[in-house]
Amino acid sequence: MTPLPDDVTTPTAETPGTPDAGGTPGTAGTRAAPAGTRAARPGSAIRSAEVLVSSPDRNFVTLRLTTEDGVVGLGDATLNGRELSVVSYLTDHVVPLLLGRDAHRIEDTWQFLYRSAYWRRGPVTMAAIAAVDVALWDIKAKVAGLPLYQLLGGASRTGIMAYGHASGRDLPELFDSIRHHQEQGFRSIRVQTSVPGIDAVYGVAAQPSSSGRYDYEPAQRAPLPAEEDWDTRAYLRHIPRVFEAVRNEFGPELPLLHDGHHRMTPIQAARLGKDLEQYDLFWLEDCTPAENQDALRLVRQHTTTPLAIGEVFNTVWDYQTLVREQLIDYVRSAVTHTGGITALRRILDFAAQYQIKSGIHGPTDISPVGMAAALHLDLAIHNFGIQEYMQHGPRTNEVFLQTFTFEDGYLHPGDAPGLGVGYDDEAAEKYPYQPAYLPFNRLKDGTVHDW
Ligand code: GCO
Ligand code: MG
């Protein structure tokens, strides 16, 4: 834990919110706090804001804020395949606004960054705001000497049910992968398979994993995005047969999930939901492209298969119709892409009024910092559903030092003060940024299709 200075005092009306009040005077690059603000404690002004880019197993963008009295907070700003746009947004437009601000004013900083930009929402803006928000929560919790979930209301459960990603190019490979995940402790499993006639399908590793880890990583290190192929009719014919085989092999109890990755029209999604009803899915994810909220109304009319959506959403506005009309069952947003803990907490509280639960996004492109933020939120909220856990590789775990645990299918963020994640600069230097892109799809006739 970061040591606290001895002279922590209650702020008074005379304590201006500038570094001069108890902090290091005259630090280069600091700005006076806005009029009428008061520092929460001496030394809590932000002294430095560094945007760190590393590529251990894949690219990550991390924001590190340090206060005048040396408390460090981390935030994840990774936007898969578009990483450097957030680096620029932060470095060129946000870092200059943060220096000298009181690190404890999380709500005010969020509102300031969101509203003062005028140009609101969008993945780049909201990933940048999320990184600041999470780093500030990390600082506040460290100063309090508490794990972050305690500041969010304390634990509502003892562990966080996680689902893992099983996949295979055919049924034997898929069954092996499911068994392997069960051996690792997973009690809920996402199922993705190849489809006859399609060469490369989202969610299926080209090679079976020898390391025992799930090795599917959609972003590829290359100067251009890879082209994949797609055929929705072939997919719709194949997937129900896969779930029939999985249920026959593994029985009725195992919670199974599936990701449609935005590829169906509303009526196609309705049909798949109906066809899968008998296999009792925990959820069908992203069955249609997410920006058309009305599409889910049609899907909902036709099927009782639970629906999850939202990994590409950025704000509560994307959920307005879906939540109010109860068109979904799970919120899939990531802390990293939805404006941080402050904003995602509000979305989940809104969803709770409609019995909609959380299913926070947790693929490998959410860094361990973004994952830790998700785990603290998962532990604290009442309407927790499930947490995606795709397991980072060894190089990533070398750069990001973590305190979370995974035992018997349940995650826990640990009890270190703050988020419980550190950043090893020396390790990170070994892995410089490498251009990488997500793939895209073309249909047989050459038309670009949703990936
Ligand atoms: C999931 C997602 C991811 C995304 C990836 C894109 O459900 O975990 O669909 O695998 O494809 O996050 O960057
Ligand atoms: Mg998904």
From TrEMBL:
Q: Show the SMART domains listed in the entry.
A: MR_MLE
A biological process (GO) annotation for this entry? carbohydrate catabolic process
| Molecular-function GO terms, alphabetical | magnesium ion binding; mannonate dehydratase activity
Q: Which residues form the Mandelate racemase/muconate lactonizing enzyme C-terminal domain?
A: 171-306
* Regions of compositional bias (Low complexity) in chain numbering: 9-43
What are the TM regions of this chain, as residue ranges?
Answer: none
Note the NCBIfam families from the entry: ManoateDhtManD, PRK15072.1
Protein name from the UniProt record: Starvation-sensing protein RspA
Query: What organism does this protein naturally occur in?
Result: Cellulomonas chitinilytica
